[in-house]
């Protein structure tokens, strides 16, 4: 049973399999407009898939106060508060879309071992030094791109960010999900989560990363 907690920043946190020594803190994407935060359908679908498979891992989903890249520092504050509240001794930051930038910005915390970016927005001016001493693993759909009225992040953006990280000596992997789109799931009008095409391929790759983290080498 998941538990929802109000964070010190004013954001919300949803905990599954908690408390746990090993925590996966999941941070969501955003948009240009400054709108109230919501739970991510992609991250919720992912936690529903992964939590039963990894009972030794705690999962913490963040719902920002405002989910906008125009308020990125507020999102960073929410993520830092989530790391504190989750209470893991070892933490993996899992960042989807804009959440990739948020995860990287907050990765310097001593409890964080690394960042797993799902279609991460690693914009060219993003400071990557918080990743020093950590690792960065990236998964990105080959069909991901921004289209009219459809959000997306080109894999060119995350690839450039990943290569900048490698130039700083940060270890990691970059994996392309063939046929993958931007995200893993959508929510129907009735609230049901529906996996997008290739969601199972995403799940396989993410599970492999979580196995490494759980084993202590991530």
List the helices and strands and how they pair.
Layout lengths: L2 E4 L5 E5 L5 E6 L13 H10 L6 E7 L8 H15 L3 E7 L1 H8 L6 E7 L16 E7 L13 H13 L4 E6 L7 E3 L5 E3 L3 H17 L3
Parallel strand pairs: 3-4, 3-5, 5-6, 6-7, 7-8
Antiparallel strand pairs: 1-2, 2-4, 9-10
How many structurally independent domains?
Answer: 1
Annotation, overall tally of beta strands: 10
Largest sheet: spatial strand order: 1-2-4-3-5-6-7-8
Profile the largest sheet.
8 strands, mixed
Low-pLDDT windows of residues = none
| Gross morphology | globular
Beta-strand residue percentage: 25-35%
Order of helices and strands: EEEHEHEHEEHEEEH
Name the CATH homologous superfamily. Answer: Alpha/Beta hydrolase fold, catalytic domain
Helices, by number, come to 5
CATH class identity: Alpha Beta
**Remind me, CATH topology?**
Rossmann fold
Instruction: Give the oligomeric state.
Output: single chain
CATH architecture: 3-Layer(aba) Sandwich
CA gyration radius, whole angstroms: 15 Å
Question: What would your notes on this structure say?
Answer:
There is one protein chain. This protein has 218 residues and is an alpha/beta fold. The chain has one domain (3-215): Rossmann fold (3-Layer(aba) Sandwich). The chain is 29% helix and 25% strand. The strands form two sheets. The chain has an eight-stranded mixed sheet with strand order 1-2-4-3-5-6-7-8, with helices on both faces. Strands 9-10 form a two-stranded antiparallel sheet. The model has no long low-confidence stretch (mean pLDDT 95).
